Amino acid sequence: MDPNDDQIIRQLLDDYLRMYSSRDDRLTESFSEDFSGFTGGGDFLVKDRQAWIAITRQDFAQVKDPIRIELKDVAIQSLADTIAVATSFFTIHLPMKDHVLSRETARLVLIFRKEATDWKIAHSSISIPYYLVREGEVYPLKELVDRNRNLESVVAERTAELHSQNVKLSEAMAKVRTLTGLVPICSACKKIRDDAGFWHQVETYVHDHTDAEFSHGLCPDCIPHYFPKQT
User: Fold this and answer.
1) Do 41 and 130 sit in the same domain of this protein?
2) Would residue 143 be called left, alpha or beta, if left means φ above 0 and alpha means ψ between -120 and 50 degrees?
């Protein structure tokens, strides 16, 4: 291949990737009338230029916003004076949060043929492990949507469970009432002074400030004092 043709083919490949990533319909003008190809998620061979244009436009319609192509490697080969092959490896980054496609390597082979007016793409084959692609898709967007919905459902369920547990915890904490800090108590009668300066029996103060309840009785040391005849 003439060195100038080699540069032309590389430029054609760069133009192809640029127009494809920017979703530029002018890309369809690059295909030869005598065309064949297959898509990354397709199970059929396309043998018609118009059919390939329709697939390209379907691709653009499915993902309307520009995509980002991270080029990894390129090889340009001359098979004849009028035939050249451009092979490229790259990663496709769709304009959405997705970790499946961004980790996959796309392998694109374009066969250029020098025709009467210019070099045209006579064959295009892209190989991507799109095991998730469904009928009518170029990219596995339906699978991504379903997966995101499932994830959102799980998150909602976990959030509801967490809220329920927080409610139970709040209810439990509301029932816990404790006395902390210094409690001013009379050393003689053992009454306790509250924050307003009023004095209360120990039982009254503790009952008002905690959930404790009192049951009255006499300890062994007090029984002789109050009931001497029973000792």
Assistant:
1) yes
2) alpha
